[in-house]
UniProtKB/TrEMBL annotation:
It catalyses: pyruvate + ATP = phosphoenolpyruvate + ADP + H(+). Keywords: ATP-binding, Glycolysis, Kinase, Magnesium, Metal-binding, Nucleotide-binding, Pyruvate, Transferase. Its EC number is 2.7.1.40. Residues 5-325 form the Pyruvate kinase barrel domain. Pfam families: PK, PK_C. SUPFAM superfamilies: Phosphoenolpyruvate/pyruvate domain, PK beta-barrel domain-like, PK C-terminal domain-like. It comes from Ignisphaera cupida. PANTHER family: PYRUVATE KINASE. The gene is pyk. One of its GO terms (molecular function) is magnesium ion binding. Belongs to the pyruvate kinase family. This is Pyruvate kinase.
Length: 471
């Protein structure tokens, strides 16, 4: 499995059975995403149980991410796919369901959509593959003309190009899904369609109210407002996700690489975890092998220094979910062993500058000591804070982190370079010895290796142990 860049898979109909999820974990998946925009709580409970069972069988912590729908506009349920050729007309009507098919009627349950849309607007769907021009607007229906060959299916998000409808950041459905995530011990919640840092504050306040402020908030950057407020959003969020699908619905496709670079660099500078998602291996929804362009795209993201890559449709609805995971890990492993080593200097320069906080300076000092000595770094962490700081500095060596807190380990599982290991100890000195011994037992540390071992900065005396493993 990858040492530095982690792999996250989305669970859906194609990957919902326990065997597939277990096999993904065996291949090296470090986290799973459950999209609350699709499926039902009954489905999600099965997914959670399958992930936790796989985690126990493999003996490796796995992060669970719940993805909120957020203030998006989604069409309702379509019984049959609506196939449109370029130039075909169709109608969007107010309602939650429609037969679809040859009727070419698209249900829209959001009444505000009809108040906001105007003649000539361009509607974008399906990660930019579907583009529709508004030809006529009435009180409860909208006539549209297809600008691309398209297939419209249920629950697809709709963007009005160059416009943002003012909707609350969290709906009643989102609140219910937050409660579900809390009840089932999710590790992160993905906040969709973030516009300002206030959206992050609102979710944080809900989590605080429910007594679960420790759940990490992943701010998904996908709107023009988010790009305009990027600095403040990155400061407030626990992690950042480059949501390329919706970015492609709000910006020109030619802008996406530049935007991805900007978002990743900003996350590195602020020392926040960053994930790249959507269409990494899109062709594998239908085919068992990725395209050359997709391989280059994934390789580029790894060389940028992202914490994780997230598969979406490839594993949620694709025909080859295991093959997609296998290929992604194969590409990441190859890049880590070859070209990534040439990028460490650029990556670390962005993440290790402008440091003035004592605990971060301590983490930097321990990390650079270990790197300079060509040693192995072992950390015992009750709360995960020291491990997070080290990961944010983009170590060029794997970091073996021991903790007795499973929730902490799961959050660490998707961070750059962190290899979390469970050890049963609530004492720092005892925990340090146990994590060294466990790393030896698992073959991460071998006889003759030089090891730097520590825990978080403690007053008034700090322990940093340097030892050669001799017996």
């Amino acid at each position: 499995m990858p040492l530095f860049t982690k792999v996250i898979a989305s669970i859906g109909p194609a990957s919902s059975d326990a065997t597939t999820i277990f096999n993904m974990v065996k291949l090296g998946v470090s986290g799973f995403r459950i999209n609350f925009s699709h499926g039902s709580p009954d489905d999600w409970v099965k997914y959670v149980d399958a992930v936790r069972n796989a985690e126990n069988r493999v003996g490796r912590p796995i992060a669970l991410i719940g993805d909120l729908q957020g203030p998006s506009i989604r069409i309702g349920k379509v019984e049959q796919p609506i196939v449109l050729r370029k130039g075909d007309s169709a109608r969007i009507v107010f309602g939650s369901e429609a037969r679809g098919g040859d009727e070419k009627v698209v249900p829209m349950p959001v009444k505000k959509f009809f108040d906001f849309v105007e003649d000539g607007d361009i509607l974008v769907m399906d990660d930019g593959r579907t583009r529709l021009r508004v030809a006529d607007v009435q009180a409860d229906y909208v006539e549209i003309v297809a600008l691309t060959d398209s297939v419209i299916t249920s629950r697809k998000a709709v963007t009005i190009y160059n416009k943002e409808i003012d909707l609350p950041p969290l709906s009643e459905s989102d609140i219910n899904n937050i409660k579900f995530a809390i009840a089932h011990s999710f590790d992160y919640i993905g906040l969709s369609y973030v516009r300002t840092e206030n959206d992050v504050d609102i979710l944080r306040d809900y989590l605080r109210r429910f007594g679960k402020e420790d759940i990490g908030i992943i701010a998904k950057i996908e709107t023009k407002s988010a790009i305009n407020n990027l600095d403040k959003i990155v400061e407030k969020a626990d992690a950042i996700l480059v949501a390329r699908g919706d970015l492609g619905m709000n910006f020109g496709l030619e802008e996406i690489h530049s935007l991805q670079t900007r978002i990743v660099e900003k996350a590195l500078e602020h020392r926040k975890p960053v994930i790249v998602a959507t269409q990494l291996l899109e062709s594998m929804v239908e085919k068992p092998v990725p395209t050359r362009a997709e391989v280059v795209d994934v390789s580029t993201a790894v060389e940028m220094g992202v914490d994780a890559l997230m598969l979406t449709g490839e594993t949620a609805v694709g025909k080859y979910p295991l093959e997609a995971v296998s290929w992604l890990i194969k590409i990441v492993n190859f890049v880590e062993k070859t070209t990534l080593r040439n990028e460490f200097a650029n990556i670390s320069r962005r993440s290790r500058t402008n440091i003035d906080e004592l605990r971060l300076l301590f983490a930097k000092g321990v990390l650079e000591l270990t790197e300079d000595m060509n040693a192995k770094l072992v950390v015992f962490s009750l709360y995960g804070n020291t491990a997070k700081r080290i990961a944010s500095l983009r170590p060029s060596i794997p970091v073996y982190v021991g903790s007795s807190n499973k929730s902490v380990m799961r959050k660490l599982a998707i961070l750059w370079g962190i290899q979390p290991l469970y050890v049963d100890s609530n004492n720092y000195d005892e925990g340090l010895q146990k994590i060294i011994q466990k790393a030896i037992e698992l073959g991460y540390i071998g006889y003759g290796d030089l090891v730097v071992a520590t825990y978080g900065l403690k007053e008034p005396r700090q322990r940093i142990e340097i030892q050669r493993i001799v017996s």
